[in-house]
Amino acid sequence: MDAEHDRWMTTALDEARAAPDHGDVPVGAVVIRDGEVIAARHNERELTGDPVAHAEVLALQDAAAHIGHWRLDDCTLVVTLEPCAMCAGAMVNARLGTVVFGATDPKAGAVVSHFGLLGGAPLNHAVEVIGAVRQDECGDLLRDFFRARR
Question: Could you tell me which of 131, 66, 64 has the C-alpha nearest to residue 93?
């Protein structure tokens, strides 16, 4: 495992741990540009009542605002859970350079579990994918959250 990916996943996990404070699923995401975190968010659907307030979408929006334009081709998004179809679509539309994720999502993952949306054709952009970074730790965070809710 790349030491930088491990380091950034620590930050994403810290974000994820904040989500249950307001009833949200613990998913965290950070956007990296030139070795610096430019955006860090966690899920906020329950908090805001916004169906698209996934950590990845919020982090992409913040990163674009920070940079001053929508093209994030020189950025890496690090997220604790494999992105869903909506988030993967946002990454393609943002022309994201790379996504690094932790746990796979066998139910809704759209990167490796289903669809392969970041692979390019027939879409107009491919995003480099690096998966399974601290997969067990990311998965345990989610399992613990859902176990406590049952």
Answer: 64
**What tens digit of pLDDT does each residue of 49-105 get?**
999 999 999 999 999 999 999 999 999 999 999 999 999 999 999 999 999 999 999
CA distance linking residue 138 with residue 14, whole number of Å: 11
Q: Name the strand (E) or helix (H) holding 7.
A: helix 3-18
Of 85, 120, 121, 125, which is closest to residue 105 (Cα–Cα)?
A: 85
Task: Write out the E strands in 82-134.
Answer: 98-103, 128-130
Catalytic residue among 56, 82, 128, 137: 56
Determine whether 137 is an active site residue.
no
